[in-house]
Amino acid sequence: MSERTPVIAGNWKMFKTNTEAAAYVAEFLALVADARAVEIILCPPFTCLSAVRRELAGSSVRVAAQNMHFEVEGAYTGEVSAAMLKEIGISDVILGHSERRQYFCENDADLARKVTAAMAAGIRPILCVGESDQEREAGSTNDKLKSQLDGGLAAVTPGQLPDMLIAYEPIWAIGTGKTATPEIAEEAISFIRETLARQFNPEAAARVRILYGGSVSPGNIGELMAAENIDGALVGGASLDVGSFARIVKLG
Ligand code: 13P
User: Fold this and answer.
1) Which end of the chain is more exposed for a tag (fewer CB within 10 A), N or C?
2) d(CA 25, CA 61)
3) Exposed, middle or buried, 191 (CB in 10 Å: 0-12/13-18/19+)?
4) Residue 179: which region, alpha, beta or left (left: phi > 0; alpha: psi -120 to 50)?
5) Which residue puts its alpha carbon closest to atom 1 of ligand 1?
6) Which residues does residue 41 pair with via DSSP β-bridges, in sequence order?
7) 224 within ligand 1 shell (Cβ under 6 A)
8) Domains of the chain from N-terminus onward
9) How many Å apart are CA 231 and CA 224, to the nearest integer?
10) Which atom of ligand 1 is closest in space to residue 215's alpha carbon?
């Protein structure tokens, strides 16, 4: 009903030095030169953001940070603000990745503040949600997704919703090689879209792009993208190899 441009994002997590990143980008640009109908985002570690942005000059590939703090500045050792990212040309930021929630104790209230701070600075948030293995087995997947959406998007207006991205990343599929089947991913993502329609309005929910993440590879991207509500992918491990990520971009 509404045309949503596909998005393929590569989350490098804590991988790649500047030297490795520069070599990757040069090769990547050549490989995806003819990929037009897809929005591409590279998400390198903080130390590589400037170099990757520079190497991408003149291309439409976007660059995302993997996290940021919600304050504009302050005594928060080790943290980086939205304004700092904006200044170096960063367009997007991943917020609430399950690894941040799990290892760095991020909660939905923190994420609501981060989403607001990113948007205020003109940086597009990519809010991640997803259930654990135990939650899926206990039949509480939808409750978990709803509470993460209620919490993380608490300060977002219906007008802002289509300007951000949501990523459904079931924790049990991340880094495990155990991809959600297209049916499972579609079911969860269409639940997310219905929840957003109630939380905001049906128009905003129909326009917001929702990505799937969790063991995406060149072998499964096609069937995932064929699902009605899946608008793209947030790729971890398979984005580290330039050839495999370029194939995912082309198939997406
Ligand atoms: P993998 O693709 O390695 O499973 O990671 C997914 C992910 O966490 C992307 O943010």
Assistant:
1) N
2) 10
3) middle
4) beta
5) 236
6) 9, 62
7) no
8) 7-251 (3.20.20.70)
9) 9
10) 4
Atom of ligand 1 at shortest range from CA of 174: 4
Pocket flag, ligand 1, residue 148 (CB < 6 Å) = no
Type and span of the H or E element at 227: none
pLDDT tens-digit profile, the chain (252 residues): 458 999 999 999 999 999 999 999 999 999 999 988 999 999 999 999 999 999 999 999 999 999 999 999 999 999 999 999 999 999 999 999 999 999 999 999 999 999 999 999 999 999 999 999 999 999 999 999 999 999 999 999 999 999 999 999 999 999 998 889 999 999 999 999 999 999 999 999 999 999 999 999 999 999 999 999 999 999 999 999 999 999 999 998
Give dist(CA 27, CA 243) in Å, integer: 9
DSSP letter string over 147-201? HHHHHHTTT--TTTGGGSEEEE--GGGTTSS-PPPHHHHHHHHHHHHHHHHHHS-
Amino acid at the residue 43: C
- Prediction pTM value: 0.97
Cβ–ligand 1 distance for 130 under 6 Å, the answer no
